[in-house]
Amino acid sequence: MHRHRSRQRNRFVGIIPFILLIIGAVIFLRYYLGYIPYISWTFSPIVIIIIIVFILRGLSYRSRIRQKNHEESAVRTHSPYRQYEPTVVKREEENFTSTVQYQYRNSYEMQFCNFCGIKLESEEQSFCVNCGQRIN
CA-to-CA distance for 115 and 111, rounded, in angstroms? Predict the structure, then answer.
């Protein structure tokens, strides 16, 4: 259901490390070539570490997608973007007869189906929308 949106988001997230890599490379080369002599020594390693972290994050994300596409058991993460397979709940049908209560339709009272218990939308309904039971 949310597959398309996450794919769009991750395409843009994948571009970020390459942009940072290019910016870091330009700053690093300019620093060592002497064009920007006033950059402190602490700035360049921080940029390089940030770029490496983003690249590793992108690679781990791609490997997770690869595992998912080949239907291998992926490592369970606490990521909110991880999609789990929905569990199918089997419903046991109960065999019981509905007790039809004959009552006057009062405009003040809410009408409920006697069989499934759903609230009825209008007073003119003669059949339940949910289960199809006749309403008297």
Answer: 12
For all residues of the chain together, what is the average pLDDT? Answer: 65
Q: For residue range 76-95, list pLDDT tens digits in order.
A: 555 556 555 555 555 555 55
Q: How deeply is 78 buried, as exposed, middle or buried, from its count of CB atoms within 10 A (0-12, 13-18, 19+)?
A: exposed
The single-letter DSSP state of residue 47 is: H
Local structure of residue 35 (DSSP, 8 states): S
> Domain locations in the chain?
3-69, 98-136
Angstrom distances, CA of residue 126 to CA of 7, 8, 99, 102, 118: 47, 48, 16, 13, 14
